[in-house]
Amino acid sequence: MTSPKSLSRTAASTVAANTIVSSLLTVQTSGTGFTDLTAEVAKFLREARSREGALTLFIRHTSASLTIQENADPTVLVDLTTALNRLAPENAGWRHDTEGPDDMPAHIKTMLTATSLHVPVLQGALALGTWQAIYLVEHRARPHRREIVLQFAGVTD
Q1: Closest to 67 in 3D by CA, of 121, 139, 154
Q2: Alpha carbons 50 and 97: distance in angstroms, whole number
Q3: What is the predicted pLDDT for the residue at 1?
Q4: Residues 66, 107: contact at Cβ < 8 Å?
Q5: 3 and 142 in contact (C-beta within 8 Å)?
Q6: Could you give all domains of the chain from N- to C-terminal order, each with its CATH number?
Q7: pTM for the full model?
Q8: pLDDT one-digit tens code per residue, 59-78
């Protein structure tokens, strides 16, 4: 293993988390695909008057998920959808098909992605990278109403 040529980090900051702010975000999807939640989540943090802490997002479903992915090139999202469809195709002989051929593949795709995310909050803003966005990923073909619990724990103004 080679050592990195350069390492740096900022000085540690310490806060006493004295507040938890929660909200339920409801999203109506239009079927399979990605919905960018970043602006709505940032709005929640502003309304919560967040300063330093952590944001947790939790989706209350087993056939949709959350992810942090690139927000600059939309073909990334297309390719991710293609990859998930290859990993969990419809009509592959799944036994669970109560709600149709996309039922079991949706559960598998959720298991491969995430039902919760944790994002640091620094100086009142999401500590996302330049090309990162927070997405709800709908794995079902038909529209659904999805609920995401937003919870900020930390210091507020």
Answers
A1: 139
A2: 43
A3: 64
A4: no
A5: no
A6: 19-156 (2.60.120.460)
A7: 0.90
A8: 999 999 999 999 999 999 99
